[in-house]
Amino acid sequence: MGKIRDSVDARALRFAMVFPVLLAAAFVVCALLIRPDVPDPMAVRWTEAGPAGFAPFSAFVTFGGLIVVLVGWLVLGQAVPLSRPAVMRRLMMGAGLTVSLFVTTVLAAVLVGQAGIADVREARVDMTVLALGSGAALPLGVIMGFVFKADERWSVDDDRAVRAALDREIDPELAADSVHMWVHARSSVFVMLGVASLFPAALVSIAVPWLGALLVALAVLAAAFLFARVIVDRSGLRVFAAGFVRVMEVPASAISSATPAVVRAADYGGWGYRHHGGTTAMLVSSGPAVVVNRADGKKMAISGGSADSAEKVAAVLSRVAARARGEK
User: Fold this and answer.
1) Which residues make Cβ contacts (< 8 Å) with residue 246, sequence separation at least 6?
2) CATH class of 171-185+226-324
3) Model confidence over 249-261: pLDDT tens digits?
4) For a designed S-S bond to 260, which of 63, 116, 118, 310 qualifies (C-beta 3.0 to 4.6 A apart)?
């Protein structure tokens, strides 16, 4: 029994079992409320000539409720096992809600379409009920797929968080040896880039739409690479252009020194990622930066954001490099 509980999502199981039953019960109650206005037997199948199949009211309501329950259990139940990927469980939870509501909508449309008629051969499916119910079923299923938390159990991310917390507890200085920051160009640079690209793109798109779109895409790409993410920890230095393209990675043991400085981007080949005069640079603007001297004689320069943040990055790099070399 314990193994079963560990292999299923208890909350998803409760929802998968209870929701179809409640939905079927609501259908049965509503059907009984309009029972006096519905013919008995009811039409349940149609051809081009009209109703061709009939069933007693009680049989229609009973089997209709059972179909809602069984379909709901079948589809929603696919979201219960924890062994399945989280994305699949989300999809199946949303699909189960949509399918259950759609089946109920079809049954309700058949029921309402026969309310108030004198002859069962005049029976029809109420298209208004069918359209409204179907239109609501789909977005509700999409919402359920997004809000359903499929990873409620312990995960690899939880393991990483616990290890990080234990490391900080064992070594209180660990947090001080870590810096995560974003640097970016001045806002005036982005304004200039927009003016230099969007206006020409708007004019060019009148004659050649795809060329205008290409100019805009190039401008967005250029703007993205005027952002950089800098990560410093005891393993060393890592710099990501546009936040995700790794352009620099230096182990702490390979760093001989790091100093804050005020630099001109032109001296290093310009903005962005550059190799210039034996120096590798990732500068998003002129101004505060960190100059890193490597043990192999190579030099690196990265934007530091503000003077304070550049000084902090340089201090942390110097500290972790000394620690990696066994110095105190």
Assistant:
1) 238, 239, 240
2) mainly beta
3) 989 888 888 999 9
4) 310
